[in-house]
Amino acid sequence: MLLYVPNKLINSKKEIIQKHKKTNDVHIDEQSSELLDLITRLVSLREDSLEREAYALSNGEISMISAYIPVNYYDVDMSNLFAIYTYRAEKRYFEILYTTWQDHFKNNECNAFIYQWLNDNDEIFGSVLDISLKPDFRKMLVRGDVLLTFGNIVKEKIIETDNSLEDILEPWNLRYGSKLLWEMKFLLYTYCPKKVYLKISKQELLSYVKQYASKKDGSLKKFVVNFVTEFKLKELERFDDIGRFLLDEVGNPGTSEFSKFLEGVSADLVTKYTDWINKLIIDEVFGKDERSLFWKQYRFRSVVKYERSNSVVMDMGKYVAIEFLGKAMGPIYIYKKDVFEDQVKKWFQNRNNAQLRSVLFHHENYFWREVHQGYWQGDVDRILYSNNMTRKIEG
User: Fold this and answer.
1) Which of 143, 169, 226, 302 allows an S-S link to 254, with CB 3.0 to 4.6 Å?
2) Which long-range contacts (CB under 8 A, 24 or more apart) does 51-57 make?
3) Residues 107, 100: Cα–Cα separation, whole Å
4) How far apart are CA 123 and CA 219, in angstroms?
5) Nearest 5°: phi and psi at 241?
């Protein structure tokens, strides 16, 4: 009987196998008496018996040693284990060592051993990783900061080649979820240039921004400073999801938590960040209508929506502009800031939309009132400009 297997199915199977290649991922348990007995016995051997013992060990025992080298749970003298590994080294054992090392790359003793071992083992290295990666791998091992060195290597490759981050990382055969992969990205995204950010999916970048926030270690501020520095204001508007998260996390411009978060940051950068967040708020409260298009042109210290009165107040420093939301809308009011604070602001918090529109209509201390009729934008623009209330934002 003939069995027909479609070529497309065969090719798909090959692609799946290639993308999800298994490595000799050996997990060792620090509490294992078997592991403790093995390591204790091997570290007590005399130097002249190491080669004989190395070749007497089973494949499983060499696998355990390969996985133990990066971790050194029992804080033993590693010289015998290094020697035994060197005698028995081959592809499968380097795969195990390399896989385990990705979670324990800060072990300087292990890093020094691998660095020296690589001098005479190009063939084994090349069977696991492309031999062209060897110089960069050795840089990572010898410079004392694997994460920073690896991040710089990745950053430079993106800039030089214009390849995606995934394409650049693929030859390194990094285990998904490894500390090296996660922590390298975690660090890289706090200082990389714009070109690197553009090679990352927005979903992945947002996931790291959320992790910066959860760490509470200053990494979120480092990211914000670098991210806002790298992009023009118009470009930042492409990252609405990140902007919304930062608005929730950092606070609205003009609030104490906002000022505290950006303490020590240059005034120009604070202004750009404030413009980005305010534009985002304006789009959300107005729903991207003609009013949104108009007000987004201008710089504000803060844009605050009052839920009870369904209104928005845009702070220009010495003046505030007020708009009503919803179908009923209402005219634009402009107040001097001190009048608003002393006489008007309280109404926004304790009156509904209809009540607020009524009380402002009968309140005579406003500076300017404009209904949304005809080319109202020209009249408002003239008032803003002639009284030096604010200025238009340059992209």
Assistant:
1) 302
2) 51/83, 51/87, 53/84, 54/83, 54/84, 54/87, 54/88, 55/87, 55/88, 57/84, 57/88
3) 11
4) 40
5) -65, -40
In the chain, the percentage of residues whose pLDDT exceeds 70 is 93
Q: In degrees rounded to 5, what are phi and psi of residue 143?
A: -90, -5
Residue 292 lies in a domain: no
Which domain-ending residue is among 286, 313, 328?
286
Query: How many residues are present in the chain?
Result: 395
- Count structural domains, the chain: 3
**331 in the same domain as 277:** no
Residue type, 44: S
Angle at 338 between CA 336 and CA 344, to 5 degrees: 85
| 178 inside domain | no
Long-range contacts from 28-32, C-beta under 8 angstroms, 24+ separation:
28/64, 28/67, 28/68, 28/71, 30/71, 30/73
Q: Which residue has the tokens 């080294």?
A: 89
Residues 330, 232, single domain; the answer is no
Q: How far apart are the C-alpha atoms of 361 and 37, rounded to whole Å? A: 87
Tokens of 205: 């970048």
Residue among 290, 303, 315, 319 nearest 386 (CA): 319
**Same structural domain, 312 and 280:** no
Is residue 340 situated within a structural domain?
Answer: yes
Tokens standing for 322? 């007020």
Alpha helices (H) along 233-369:
233-236, 240-250, 256-261, 267-286, 290-295, 337-339, 345-350, 353-361
Mean per-residue pLDDT of the chain: 91
Range of the domain at 105: 33-143
**81-120 pLDDT per residue, tens:** 999 999 999 999 999 999 999 999 999 999 999 999 999 9
Check whether residue 204 and residue 267 sit in a common domain.
yes
Please indicate, yes or no, if residue 126 is contained in any of the structural domains: yes
Q: Could you tell me which of 288, 287, 321, 284 has the C-alpha nearest to residue 302?
A: 321
